[in-house]
Amino acid sequence: MRRRLLAAAAVAAVAVPAVAGAPPATADTYHPTVVSANPVDWTPHVLDGTVWSLALVGDTVVVGGAFTKVTDSSRRQVYARKNVFAFGLWDGEIRTFAPQVDGAVYSLAAGPDHSVYLGGAFKSVNGAAQRGLARVSLFDSGRYASFGARVNWGDVRAIVSRGDQLYAGGTFSAVNGVQRVGLVRLNAQSGAVDQGFDARLAGPGLKRTRVEHFDVSPDGRKLIAVGAFLRSGTADRTQIALFDVGGPAAALTGWYTDAFKPTCMQGFDTYLRQVKFSPDGTYIVVAATGRASSAQKLCDSAARFETRTAGRQNPTWVQRTGGDSLYAVAITGPAVYLGGHQRWFDNPYGTDGNGPGPGAVSRPGIGAVNPNTGKALEWNPTRSRGVGVRAFLVTRNGLLVGSDTDQLGREYHGRLGMFPLPNS
């Protein structure tokens, strides 16, 4: 398998230069089939903490999270890497990239000229003040001082780069002194706030309004956001909102759902954790936690919603774990991959304390469902559950997984692994 991937890399290197401007961000890459359940052997290992985010820049995988040490696939050489590092997509070789970031990196996005955008809970990069957002070079780990975006407090939990625009979501209420609650659009070069773009999110009665995650459609015209909010402007939008971002403003669409209005366990100001567009942009899938209390609520579930029409939406399907959280989702066409600390899929009648219900199937920590029905696919590599999968990255040759445990596909993989496409 390693030889085949290296050969593919040589072909790719001819067609796609490794050092190039960042391609427009899209939804997950389409795959012709479900990935193998046997992870490759050559990915590095993260030895502590949690991997929260993954991004691909040329032929380099960038890994963000809260950790201090990584090692090569053989576990013979340990490298000090605090909260961010990088490795080769085709061979797993750990890069020299090692910026000094003093807090967790929750989100990553490819930037132009072989750079990467960081979003997280940090306050400085390479010793310079740069709260929550930064752009750094993969060549020399240098911080781009020309990118001046800074959040006022809190953190950045999701970022998407698209051409000359950068979107960021999190717990902040202002960027560069400009009020923007939870969601902002920036100039990708300077970090300046787009003055005409304001989602006007609010959460009356909530402790803090925030965007937990968001995604931008493949054509760049729609943005779906989830998090702790109840309104956009004067419109009711509980935990989820769809915007038209093809123009100068964040124009709230007429698309909405009341499916997430029912509360889950007390203390969850939002129980939605990730949302992704399908590769063709016609639907989304939302991953949720919340401690399931009834089969009528969408706590501890994944749900598909169509996005082609406006008005009130009901889920096309719901995948229920029976009381275990889902945190991450990836959509490739043939499969919707879900990660968390779940034990079962197809488990609407099971409960956290009483075990699986009729029809439930074992899918510890990771699994895949049919995109049309939401039912579990046969793919079942397993992983040690821990808190759960926090990040998927779909590449043209497979599916990368970032989490907080060290067993994936019944093998040792320290918080990071990759399932290849068959025959890749």
TrEMBL record:
A UniProt-annotated Pfam family: DUF5122
Signal peptide bounds: 1-20
InterPro entries the UniProt entry points to: Delta_60_rpt (IPR013431)
Keywords: Signal
Source domain of life: Bacteria
UniProt name for this protein: Beta-propeller uncharacterized protein DUF5122
Species of provenance: Actinoplanes italicus
Taxonomic classification: Bacteria, Bacillati, Actinomycetota, Actinomycetes, Micromonosporales
